[in-house]
Design a protein that fits this description.
- The complex is a heterodimer of chains A (223) and B (115).
- With 223 residues, chain A is an alpha/beta fold.
- Chain A has a single domain, classed as P-loop containing nucleotide triphosphate hydrolases (Rossmann fold).
- Chain A contains eight helices and eight strands, in the order βαβαβαβαββααβαβα.
- Chain A has a seven-stranded parallel beta sheet, with helices on both faces.
- The radius of gyration of chain A is 18 Å and the shape is globular.
- Chain B is of the alpha+beta class and 115 residues long.
- Chain B is built from two helices and six strands.
- The longest helix of chain B has 18 residues.
- The termini of chain B are far apart.
- The chains are: A alpha/beta (223), B alpha+beta (115).
Chain lengths: 223, 115
């Protein structure tokens, strides 16, 4: 009996595709982010608010993942930017191959931003690199403030936490300071933005954050 | 429940290795799973059994080594294990520390019987 050292990432095949995507994004100067949350936290709402604030000539495209239905793509298509729905047919996360396949019909030279809305799930999308510049996790105040501790991986791996539905804070027993402290326990120094997609609070800060990160990412790619 | 996808990926990697050594009998796969990998050990073992049962891989063991989270202080550079999200530096109390281990999801080794 002998032991062979393998030392390979389990998701090596996914990683290869993700790196291929990342190289393409770099080549075309595309800024890509991957937004993840529980179902119902408000990912699609945030993207609607984001798209309506973008200049009409922005070169942005979206991929949105769900187990079933084209509903989210229909909601997002109203803003006039290219959108494709990825129906996973039961799979609880997007993987790099699905992204690559759904990008095939678009000319990447026409894009400068790609937004990927993952399947609503705080666990499974965590380990799958999609070639994005970074992951963003969203939490809403109708959930528990201990979510970062219950699902640490995604909070650890995300660049930013968006706390959504802050207009509801007076009506729900959610301790926002505790939620943020929990997130920063898991991910020391994590950036956090408070928003409400309903009242519009915090959306200017979010758009500025995005603009800044977009600039940083594209600059880094060309340096 | 993405553990079945993870199990499938492990099996794909094992199958590739098998093509390289068709004569060997595979006994066990050694996996390294970090605390932050977001993988449930029991669900993975269950998925593994379900996937290998009544196939050529029936009986192929899966040994999962747990890797604890380790942090390094950005100020004093002290390295320490950080259970239960105690990520502040125990030496100088700095809050800003970086993770240096704990998000592994690796196939470490294969145990085989050579002909």
């Amino acid at each position: 009996m002998s032991q062979i050292q393998v030392e390979k990432k389990v998701l090596n095949e996914n990683q290869i595709v993700a790196e291929r995507l990342r190289a393409q994004f770099r080549e075309h100067g595309i800024f890509c982010f991957n937004i993840i949350s529980s179902p119902g936290s408000g990912k699609t709402s945030l993207l609607e608010r984001t798209l309506e604030r973008l200049p009409k000539d922005s070169k942005v495209a979206l991929l949105t993942g769900d187990l079933q239905t084209e509903n989210d793509a229909t909601r997002l298509a109203r803003f006039g930017f290219p959108v494709r729905q990825i129906i996973t047919g039961g799979t609880c996360h997007l993987d790099a191959r699905m992204v690559e396949k759904h990008l095939a019909e678009w000319n990447l030279a026409d894009l400068d931003t790609l937004i990927v809305e993952n399947v609503g799930n705080l666990v499974c999308p965590t380990g799958y690199d999609l070639g994005e510049a970074f992951k963003i996790v969203m939490l809403s105040v109708t959930e528990g403030e201990d979510k970062p501790l219950k699902y640490p991986s995604i909070f650890f791996k995300s660049e930013l936490m968006i706390l959504n539905k802050i207009d509801l804070l007076p009506y729900v027993p959610f301790n926002a300071d505790q939620a943020k402290a929990n997130a920063r326990k898991v991910h020391p120094g994590m950036e956090i933005l408070d928003v409400s997609c309903t009242s519009g609070a915090g959306l200017d800060e979010w758009m500025n954050w995005l603009k800044q990160k977009r600039g940083d990412t594209v600059l880094a790619a060309h340096s | 429940m993405h553990e079945l996808s993870i199990a499938t990926s492990i099996l794909e990697a094992v199958s590739k290795e098998k093509q390289r050594r068709p004569e060997s009998r595979f006994l066990k796969v050694g996996l390294r799973v970090g605390e932050l990998a977001g993988v449930d050990r029991d669900a993975l073992s269950f998925g593994w059994e379900a996937l290998t049962k009544d196939t050529e891989w029936d009986g192929l063991g899966l040994e999962i080594e747990h890797v604890a989270r380790r942090q390094r202080c950005t100020v004093c550079q002290f390295e320490f294990e950080a259970p239960d999200f105690m990520t502040a530096c125990p030496k100088c109390e700095e809050m800003l520390t970086v993770t240096i281990a704990g998000d592994e999801l690796d196939i470490a080794y294969l145990e085989v019987e050579e002909p």
